[in-house]
Design goal:
Layout lengths: L1 E2 L1 H11 L10 H20 L15 E9 L4 E8 L10 E4 L5 E6 L12 H5 L1 H4 L4 H13 L12 E5 L5 H14 L5 H10 L9 H13 L39 H4 L9 H9 L2 H6 L29 H9 L3 E7 L7 H11 L3 E10 L2 E9 L2 E6 L6 H4 L1 H13 L9
Parallel strand pairs: 1-2, 4-5, 6-7, 7-10
Antiparallel strand pairs: 2-3, 3-5, 8-9, 9-10
Helix pairs in contact: 1-2, 5-12, 6-7, 6-13, 7-8
Keywords: Carboxypeptidase, Disulfide bond, Glycoprotein, Hydrolase, Protease, Signal
Organism: Acorus gramineus
InterPro entries: AB_hydrolase_fold (IPR029058), Peptidase_S10 (IPR001563), Ser_caboxypep_his_AS (IPR033124)
Amino acid sequence: MALSRTSLFLLVLLCLAFSSSSLVSAKNQSKLWRELAKAKREREADLVHGLPGQPEIKFRQYAGYVTVDESHGKALFYWYFEAQSKPQERPVLLWLNGEANLLFLEAPVGVGFSYSNTSSDLENLGDEVTGHYVPELAEKIFDENKKAPKQNYINLKGFIIGNALLDDDTDQTGMIEYAWDHAVISDGVHDQIKKFCDFSQEEQPTECIHGMNEYFDVYKIIDMYSLYTPTCVDKNSTSREQKSRIEGVAPKFFSKFEGWHTKPAGYDPCVSYDTEDYLNRPDVQKALHANVTGIPYSWTHCSDAMGSWTDAPASILPTIKKLIKGGIRIWVYSGDTDGRIPVTSTRLTLNKLGLNITQDWTPWYNHKQVGGWTINYDGLTYVTVRGAGHQVPTFVPKQSLQLIEHFLANRDLPKTDF
């Protein structure tokens, strides 16, 4: 069942325990209560009563569709998990890619179970996706809050992004330096790329492209997402070369290489395949109220549609600077065994911001073990997570939960072993 945008917003208001009764007239109050009743009916229709093979759980979950453009038949699929206790008092955590209400949203239209009934919308996806999801969504909310009436104000506190594509120039430079420093590529390949490639430019000379081809050849046999874990071997193939795609959006120059789009899966090395098999089961889709329109493609962990994203800015740093100045709390974290957007890339990128350091490089702890390192700047916290690849919670769930809990509570990670 598809929730209207109005209904979804009312649900968010309920989750945040806002009350607008003192702000509207009696007539508007009556209309509001009717909308609330409608939203409640739609919410209960989206309640997931159980999934095939799922063990008993102690929280409620909802799944379904949010209509974003009725005239073009566009809808985004969502999956919402309530906190186990007092969900109405907990913050709402929107996960785009603990003790919080957790909302997963498959965006943009054309990926996962999200759909559009207008074919041209899928073909022209690159014209619709207007930037890097989280910072630009935060910027949109930040800007709209300035002119929104009180009852429509969204209480955005901050955002946290991990192993994130932030700046094409430093992201790509850092990937090459990380690969050389971690003995992935030879001195010759490193030196050739360093000599002939200028990652501040989209077009590169032939010598640069030859070096990049050799760089990507290595990641056909090891996992770019996680340098030191096994790869998923295709049981139906005699070849060691894997077939799964790199998830997310690539810098414009790197996206021209086939090696950017083919890679071994993250650890659990076969989880992407297993997830695709599960979510394409008809009984699972029925339980999730998904694929109600019979979309003409299977659910996949990385959609081909993302390859048409052509209008992304080369750098999201101006947006981050703006939000820091506006008082939005920002955390950035990196799994330190990720080769896709490695710690080297993110450190080079954050240095471009020119922020004052308020607490220098310091270890943080998780149950008497070093969980990683952290550095605090004016308005931004950077955290590394030791032993984690690109999708950090997949590798170190306990440390990831600790990271999210401290972000939500606006507390520094522990500096002593406990």
